[in-house]
Every structure is written in C-alpha cells, then in structure tokens.
Design goal:
With 353 residues, this protein is an alpha/beta fold. The chain has 14 helices and 11 strands. Strand 5, helix 5 and strand 6 form a beta-alpha-beta unit. This is 3-dehydroquinate synthase.
Amino acid sequence: MQTIQSTSYPVLFQENGYNTLNDFIKSKAFKTVFILVDENTHEHCLPILQQEITADVVFEVIEIESGEVNKNLGTCMSVWHALTDLGADRKSLLINIGGGVITDMGGFVASTYKRGIQFINIPTTLLSMVDASVGGKTGVDLGVLKNQIGLFADPEMVIIDPLYLKTLSEKEITSGMAEIIKYGLTYDASLWKQFTDETKEVDLVGMIHRSIEIKNEVVLEDRLEANLRKILNYGHTIGHAVESHFLESDDKETLTHGQAIALGMITEAYISSKLFNFPLSDLEIIKTTITRIFGKVPVLKTDYPAVIDLMKHDKKNVNGQVNFVLLESIETCKIDCKVSVDLIQESLDYYLL
C-alpha cells in the first residue's frame, strides 16, 4: 500500500514501515529504544515487531495495564518514572505498540517527558489504525471524562501492519468498524456503501488505507480542529457520554468504543433528521445497518440524566454549550450545532425502539 504523508511524518505500511524504522534507528544511533506495551500487546504483538527489527540496539520494554480505565495521569506517572529509572534522556525514542490507549497515552508521555522525546506509533487494533494513531492528538482521560488532558504532537512515523489484527477478537475488530462508518457517513459515501451492500465482501485492508487517507486529508486542512476536523466528532458527543457513563457505573458492563459511537451515530442521525431534514430513508438505513453490526447498547431511560450531564464536559464545548456535528445528507455535515435536552432524550428513545 502507498505511503500517506501527513503533517510532518509518514504513515507507512507493512514491510516499507519496518525498513524505514530500521533505517531510522540506525541513523539516529540510539543507545536504548523504549517500547510501551500492555500485557496483551506484550504477549501477542511485541514478538512480531521484534522479528522485524534488525537494527543493533538495546530495547527496554515498559508494560502498563490494558484498558480505558488505565488511560490516566497515574499511569503516565508510572511510565515517566520507568523512563527515568531506565536512563532515558532527551535523545531517546519511545515506540508505542498497541491500541488507542497506548498510542494516545504513549504520545502524551513522550511529548511531555523532558519537554519532548521522539516517538513512533505502531497501532495494533483496527480502531487505532484508522483513528487514534493518526492526526497528532495525544492525551489521557480525567476520571471518566475522555481525552480531557493532552496536546497535539506528531510521531516520527506511524507503521500500519494488518497482521496485528489477527491477534484481536471479533468484538475488537467490530469496534474499529464504527470509525470507518463515521468516515463513510461524513466524508465518503463509497465507504458507507460497503457496509450497506451485504452482497459484497468487505475489503478491510482497503478500508483501512482509505480511512487513513480521509483522516489525513482532514487533518492537513485543519490540524487544530478549528473547523473541518470537527466532522470527525460525528457520533462522539452522545457516544462518548454513554461510554463514560457505562465506564463509571458499577452495575454496567464497560462498552467498547465502537459500541458507544454506534449508538452516537444513530442518535445524532435522528437529531439531524429533526433539525436539518436529513432524509428519513437514510436514517432508517443507518439504524438498521449499524444495529445489525453492533447490536443494541442496553441504555435505560434512567441513564439519560447522567449521560446528558456528562455531555456538559465534552471537550468540544464552548462557553458551556454542548456542540454537535450533524448531517444534512451523507457526506455533508453541519458543525457547532446546538441541541435541546428534550431532543437528545428523544433521540435516545428512537435508538431504543
């Protein structure tokens, strides 16, 4: 697959990525290279990477616990201490190999350690390949509030290898599909049609490449999310709030990111139909298709107040006003939309029908 050039770094694929990584390590003459993993990528993905690295260098592996619940400043502190204890300096390199938690947090750790060291992202989940690892966003959660602490910082490169997807469960693969659907609904209808046409086999590798192209095109035009990049938040205003609510509730099973965003895309499509006459026929196709892929999140009417309260902390808000990205049609979005609480509740009722 063809290399995609982003703001200051390339997104490289498979063998080309590993060759470039080896050349980079050799050219910089690192004394030690640090690798950030969780227990899953340590076991299943690190051996794949180690087989591909031919550069003569010492590697130090830093392992954290997996899961969104560990994407916080406490975990960052443990990684900063590990880097210090292992002798990292301002000329060190951190390779982040894992899903969105690893690439988001690893990028944040690297870009703040000693005012910034170089880092490389090797995403191993579908979600992190098509979304989290590309675009320069790094950060961690503040309690259950997602991605509240962070900054923009670019890696030296991103390496995409679909081989890592073989280490995932079907549930994790499905989770990543939500972001690809988002790209289809907001930017490229041909991607969306691959989900609605059940007669054709899904080209997953092609979807990955096209999704990264889309995100990169958007980021190159609007790196700091002043305008166009906001469309990438479609489905995330309600979705993130539901995800956070389930994460903090003792009596609820934690959702995958994809499950939450799937709910968000359906509810926000409903709101779009009410505010911007988004076609009802498309709304029904969105609900039917997404529900077929993701099933239904067991949200209850008693959850509504907590979900709506969490939306008040969404990082896209301005002056306390919740801002939505909504659809006028497939591929055409409206940003910074104001939505009443009653309509948000109505959209959740529609989801539960």
